[in-house]
Amino acid sequence: TSSSSSSSTTSFIKDKALLENRQAIQAIQKYKLEQQHLLQLRSTFLSEALAARGINVGPTMVDVSTPEGSKPPKEVDWDCCLSTVDDPKTCLYSFDAEPNTKVICPAGTTQYISLSALNRLRRTDPSKVEPMWHDQYAILKSWFSDDSEYSLLQFVGLKGFVVSTVLLDLGKGLAFRMALAMSVLAIVMVFLPLIEVVVSRVLTSSFLWMKWQSWGKFVHAALPLKILIGQMVWKFVAGSFGKLESIVRDYVVDLECAILEESIPVTVGGVFDITNDTANDDDDFDVSTYAEEGDESVDSESDYSNDGEYDY
User: What's the Cα-to-Cα distance from 17 to each of 8, 12, 21, 72, rounded to whole Å?
Assistant: First the structure.
């Protein structure tokens, strides 16, 4: 019993000494790693300080760092193709493009996006356009600028120029708001006689003046209250005009998308398909014509043989 207890005590002491030795080794390794890290930091700070004074001691942080987005987006050409049921195309914005709609991508890539979705996105939130391609291409400057040779607006014609450049782009939408305000004013002027009749009937109605005790206090209210009421009325009118502007603007943007869909040419797949269709039509025409000529020749031979038979 004494021998077994002594052996267990010895094994316990050995395990404890082994554990302490392992902990000491880990502490030494941690200390060496920290010292190496501090040495690297000190050498980095020293090299940066010497480089700032014009003393070249090797690569610095500027030489080895590649910050994201430091490379400016490049201008790029575009490719346009048609998404069909037989040949569907993916879309970066809505995953799958609608059938019989045009999709566009930077030249040499297959990162398609629906043409209507791209135009609607640049009108609603232009900051989200170029991140669709990870800021590699200057899409807005390349495809929607009048100064670019790759501009899509060179195909839209006079109607597209009026909608895109004059209404939506001129003065950052100021021309559109002025045109909308003039339209509203013109509509009011057209219906002004009817408005005057309705207002005069309301102002002279007995029902209105029977409620004098209810609204008469606002007539004789203090000036600050009248100013507050005027501000509330102005906010209501401005808010209503803003909602009307949003509705009409959405309609104009949809019209611009339709113009782009109609005018932008198909550069990928379109010519090949048309050529094949034309060739197939020509082949069908040749075969049908040849068959008709064969039938006519057979009929003429039979007629000739019959005539000879009767002559005989």
Answer: 14, 9, 6, 62
Cα dihedral value 189, 194, 199, 201, nearest 10: 160
Q: Is the pLDDT of residue 210 over 80?
A: yes
Angle, CA of 80, 135 and 269, to the nearest 5°: 15
Give the strand pairing for 90-91 and 101-106. unpaired
152, 143 in Cβ contact below 8 A? yes
Torsion angle (degrees, nearest 10) of CA 200, 206, 212, 215 = -50
113: nearest Cα among 80, 161, 71, 155? 80
Cα–Cα distance for residue pair 141/147, rounded to 1 Å: 8
**CA 249/CA 243 separation, integer angstroms:** 10
The number of beta carbons lying within 10 Å of the beta carbon of residue 274 is 11
Residue among 263, 283, 264 nearest 275 (CA): 283
3-state secondary structure of 104: strand
Q: What is the pTM of this model?
A: 0.59
- The structure tokens listed for 200 are 């005069």
Q: Which tens digits make up the pLDDT trace of 161-194? A: 999 888 888 888 888 999 999 999 999 999 999 9
* CA diameter of the chain: 145
- Express each pLDDT in 121-138 by its tens digit: 999 888 888 888 888 899
* C-alpha distances out from residue 102 to 26, 83, 98, Å: 64, 6, 9
